[in-house]
Design brief:
InterPro entries: Asp_de-COase-like_dom_sf, MoPterin_dinucl-bd_dom, Mopterin_OxRdtase, Mopterin_OxRdtase_4Fe-4S_dom, MopterinOxRdtase_cofactor_BS, Prok_molybdopt-oxidoreductase. The chain is an alpha/beta fold and 739 residues long. The protein is 30% helix and 18% strand. Helix 4 packs parallel to helix 19 and helix 11 packs across helix 12. The structure holds iron/sulfur cluster.
Amino acid sequence: MAKLPVSVDQIIEKYGPHKAYAPKAGFYGSHEPDKLVKTHCCYCGMQCGIQLKVKDNKIAGFEPWMEFPFNEGRLCPKGVERYLQNNHPDRLLDPIARVEGKGFEPVTWDYAMNKTISEIERIQAKYGRDAFAMLSGVSLTNEKSYMIGKFARVALKTANLDYNGRLCMVSAGGGNKKAFGLDRSSNSWADLAHAEVIIVAGANISETFPTLTHYIWQARDNGAKLIVVDPRVIPLARTADLHLPIRPGGDSALFAAMLKILVDNDWLDHDFIESYTSGFQETIDAVKDYDLDWAEEHTGIPKQKILEAATLWGKAKTSFLLHARGIEHHTKGVENVLSCINLVLATGRIGKPYCGYGTITGQGNGQGGREHGHKCDQLPGNRDITNPEHRQYIAEVWGIDEKDMPGKGLTAYEQIEAIHRGEIKGLISICFNPLVSLPNNNFVREALEKLEFYICIDSFLSETARHADIVLAGSLHEEEEGTVTTAEGRVVKINEAITPPGNARRDGQILMELAKRLGVENKFNYATSEDIFNELRVASKGGTADYFGITYQKVVDNMGIFWPCPSLDHPGTPRLWEDRKFKTPDGKAHFNPVRYRPASEVTDKDYPVVLTTGRVVSQYLSGTSTRRIGKLVDQYPEPLLEIHPKLAFQYGIKDRDLITVKTRRGEAEFPAQVVETIRADTVFIPYHWGGVHAANQLTIGNLDPISKIPEFKVCACQLIPTGKVASALTTKNAYQSGV
Ligand code: SF4
C-alpha cells in the first residue's frame, strides 16, 4: 500500500497543485467509452439525469440524458464537472489509521475493522450504549439511509443517531408535518410552469438549484408574476416583478402581515377553509395587529412592496410558493415555514393544477434521506420512534424485540454538546463534514478532540476526517446502486457505473461488515441494493412516506415514481392533496398561529451588522468534493465578504480589502466584495470552506425548538478593516482554504 501524504505541502508536492487538477491529456473524449450509464448528478436535490461515460472502470466524461423529464439534459456547472471527482488523486484508496505524531498511515481492512469493533465494544461497555453515537449524511441513497437507521438501532444499539439533514430541511419537515401531516412538496415542478404568481422565499435558485430556474422561466414566458424574498438581489431577483429585500430574521413578520392583508381584503377561499382546514380563526387572531407600518419596521421592506406582494398573491387564481434554507435556517425556522403555509391555505391554492407549495431540498437525497429512519426521532416510512405502534411494526420488520429498540436520541448539534459534557465518547460518521457545516465550528473542533475514538467513512479526507482515529475508504455515488428521492418527491434510480478504486469499498459493504462483527450478521444479509430497497418498501408500508408500491423496475420504466405509492398497481402521486384527505389526525390541513419574534441574536452597539451565510453556484455544501475540482475552484476560489457600498463607505472598505469579521463565537478574515446587491445593514459570506476561511466559525449554535436546526442565517457581527489588501489567490492558498 502506498504511503499517504499527511500535510498540504506533501499533498501538493506529490500530486501537484489542487487547482490545476484536470484529467490527463487524451483521457477525456479521445476514446470511445466502454459504456454509457444513465444515472443522476450526485449533488443537489434536483438530481438531474446524466449519462456517465465509462472507460476502463473510470468515469471518463458525461453525456446529457435528454429523455429524463426533470432536466431534459440541462446541467449546472457542478453537474458538468461532477465526473472529475472519481479519478481525483486525493481519493482515499485504503483504510487509514492515525499514528500519533505521524499523521495517517494506510492499514488493512482487517486491522481497521478489528480496531473499530474493539473500540465500540470498549466504550459501550464502560459508558453505556448511547455513549457511542452516529452521524450520517443525506447525499446517501435511500438504501443506505435505511440501512444506517437500522445499523444504529440494531447493531450499535445506540439512540444517538442523527444526520446532516438537520442542517438543511428539518424546519420544512416540522412545518409540513404540523400543517399537512406529511413531509413533501405538494407538486411536481411541472405545475410551476403554469402558475399565475410564484413566490420564492429564501431560495437562491439560480445558484443552488440552477436547473429549476428553467421552470420559473417557463412560468414567466406564460405570464407569471414572480416575487422574490431575499436580503440579496440574487440572480432570480434581478428579473422578478417584485423583490422584497428582507432583513434576515423578518420572514414571519412579512408573511403574517401579508396574511392580514388577505383577510382585510377578503382574498380568501372560504369554502376550502371551512371544509378542509382547522385553526383559521386563531391564526388570523394572531396577525390582527400586524399592519403595514409594523411590517415595514420588522422586515425592513418598504410597506408599499409588501402590499403589492399580498395583492398579487391575493388576486391570483393559481400560485406556487417555494422556499428553502433562507427562511428555514432560523431558531424560528418552523414558524417561518408555517407562516408561508398559512398564506397557501388561506387562498386554498393547493391540491389543484398549477397550485402548490414546496421546500427545495438542498442535498442530493434531502427528501428520501429524511424519510427512512436516520433521524434521531424517526423510523422508516417517516414513522415516529416514540410511537408504540410504529416501534412494534418496525421491530417486526427487523426481527427484533421492540424493547431492544433504542428510543429518541440527540440531534446533530446536541451530539456535539453531549461530547463536550462527556456523555458521548465515541463517534462514527459517514458522509458528513460537521467541522465545516455545523455552526460555531471551533466548538465542534474541540468536541472532536475530546472523543476517545472517532471513525469516519468517507471517500476523501475531509476536514472532519482529519480528526478521526480511523478513516474507512468508502464509495462515491457512481460506485453503488440505489435510489434517491428528488426535491419533487420523485424516486429515481442511481446506477452503479464503476467499482470503487484501489481498496476502497462500497459504503453498504462496510456497514454490513461492521454489523457482522457486532454479531448481527443475520439482520444485514443483503446480496444486492435491491434487497435493501425491498425491505425498505415493507418497512415504509402504511407510513406517511409509503414506498411499498415502488419497485426498481417501475422506477426505471417510468423514469421515476412519486411517493406515496402504497400498492404495486398504484401509479405514484405527483400532485398531493387532490383528494383533500390530509394526513393529520383530523384529516384537515392545519393553520398554525404564528406570532413574530426576533432572531436569537440581534444587532447592538458592539455587534452592529447582520451576518448571513449561504452558497455559491460552483460549490456544494462543505465542498469535500467540489473544492477538489479545479474548474469549480477557479469559478469562486475563496469565500468573499459581500458588502453594500453604503456600509463599505462607513467603514472605509474597498474591494479586496481584508476585513476581520468578528462575532461572539470567533473571528476570521475575508476579502471584501463591494456589491450593490445586498442590504446595507447585512453582510454575506458563503460557507463551503473550512479552516481559517470557515464562515461557520462565526455562526451561532442556537437551535429551533422543534426542528433543532441551527440559526445559520442570522447573527450579529463587527467589521474590522485590517488595513491590508487581500493578495491574489495562489493555487496553494486556494487549496489550504479547504484544509
Ligand atoms: Fe442538477 Fe443540482 Fe447537479 Fe446542478 S448540482 S446538475 S442542478 S443536480
